[in-house]
Amino acid sequence: MILQATSKELNESIELLKTYRDRLREEIINMSQKLRMSKSTIEKTLSENMELENIDKMLNRLIKQKESN
Q: For the segment 12-53, what is each residue's pLDDT rounded down to a tens digit?
């Protein structure tokens, strides 16, 4: 049996993931700035961060699922 998430549940999950992603990005940026890393290095670190990539993939899946409902 496959359970379908309600629109409300999908919206809540999407918002929670976006909040977590934004907070994680800010933490990475703040820590990198404290380490006096260059802006380009910080951007590279953000783009290569596996956790941020996984969050974005999950967000995309949830958004697609929401659109198909």
A: 999 999 999 999 999 999 999 999 999 999 999 999 999 999
Helix axes 50-68, 7-34, angle to 10 degrees: 160
CB contact set of 13 (below 8 Å; sequence gap of 6+): 5, 62
Residues in the chain: 69
Q: 17 exposed, middle or buried (CB, 10 Å; 0-12, 13-18, 19+)?
A: middle
Q: 69 vs 41, 47, 54, 65, CA distance in Å?
A: 40, 31, 23, 6
Q: Which two tokens stand for residue 37?
A: 């890393």
Residue 23's SS3 state is helix
